[in-house]
Amino acid sequence: MSEQIKKFMYINRRAPYGTIYAWESLEVVLIGAAFDQDVSLAFMDDGVFQLVKGQDTADVEMKNFSPTYKALGDYDVTKLYVEKESLEERGLTLDDLMPLTYEDEDDDWAEKDSIRLVSRAEMADIMDEQDVFFSF
Amino acid sequence: MATLHTVNKSPFEKSSLDSCLAYVKDGSSVLMYEDAIYGAIKGTAYADKVAAKGNVNFFVLGADLKARGVSEDKVTDGIEIVDYAKFVALAAENDNVQAWV
């Protein structure tokens, strides 16, 4: 069987909790991680709210799935592109997001940031390079 | 007549909050909850839209802010943070409740 690696991009455009999209995306990313593809995650529009730090869902009696984003690095999901314009329109900066890191096996397991802040134009270029999209 | 308007969708994704603000009368109230709490964040276009409605009472549900990691100091001035009991009290105090779903 041919082992062609494709570029997969998961596009996250919804806020967490109000709808199931964010959680479903995370589930599919974790399942897809088993297939050894070149995975990227895009966080744009309301999707940037998924990564906001300090989420505490105790009072709304829902599961807080935000800690799961911290496990993505262990599944070799290390490219989380966050769009700068989407953050700014929502009164957010990079400091409002959870610190997410991974250990780079090609660089003596150095700890590196998974979140890559990109402009809308850069995001368009990254999208232009993909083979497959999963939209949430 | 005083009406409690409730909004539960993100204003960045749906026009519910904009529609609500276009119809709300002076002396009435707007409560943002679930994903609508994102409309209560300081420094956005919605902070200005709320400020422009000086004679409308604005409320945001604290539990939904907390769930989404939006700290109270990020809430636009003039929006009161309330709990579920106050949500019920507002519904009872007003003559009517209008949901912008």
Q: What's the domain count of chain B?
A: 1
Low-pLDDT regions of chain A? none
Shape of chain A: globular
CATH architecture of chain B: 3-Layer(aba) Sandwich
Q: Which structural class do you get from the secondary structure elements of chain B?
A: alpha/beta
CATH class of chain A: Alpha Beta
What is the helix/strand order of chain B?
EHEHEHEHE
Shape of chain B: globular
**Which CATH architecture of chain A is right?**
3-Layer(aba) Sandwich
Q: Which structural category fits the helices and strands of chain A? A: alpha/beta
Rounded Rg of chain A: 15 Å
Tally of helical segments of chain B: 4
Q: Please indicate the percent range of residues of chain A in DSSP E strands (runs of 2 or more).
A: 15-25%
Strand arrangement across the biggest beta sheet of chain A = 6-3-2-1-7
Average pLDDT over all residues of chain B: 97
Largest protein interface, residues of each chain? A-B, 26 and 24 residues
* Beta-strand segment tally of chain B: 5
Provide a short characterization of the protein structure.
Chain A contains 3 helices and 7 strands, in the order βαββαβββαβ. Chain A is of the alpha/beta class and 136 residues long. The longest helix of chain A has 12 residues, at 21-32.
What would you note in describing this structure?
Chain A is of the alpha/beta class and 136 residues long. Chain A has one domain (7-135): Hypothetical Protein Ychn, Chain: A, CATH 3.40.1260. Chain A has helices at 21-32, 84-89, 120-128; strands at 7-12, 38-43, 80-83, 101-104, 110-113, 115-118, 132-135. The mean pLDDT of chain A is 96. Chain B has a five-stranded parallel beta sheet with strand order 4-3-2-1-5. The mean pLDDT of chain B is 97. The relative contact order of chain B is 0.26. Chain B has helices at 16-23, 45-51, 62-67, 84-93; strands spanning 3-7, 29-32, 57-61, 79-82, 96-100. Chain B has four helices and five strands, in the order βαβαβαβαβ. By secondary structure, chain B is of the alpha/beta class. Chain B has one domain (3-100): Hypothetical Protein Ychn, Chain: A (3-Layer(aba) Sandwich). Chains A and B meet through loops of A and helix 3 of B.
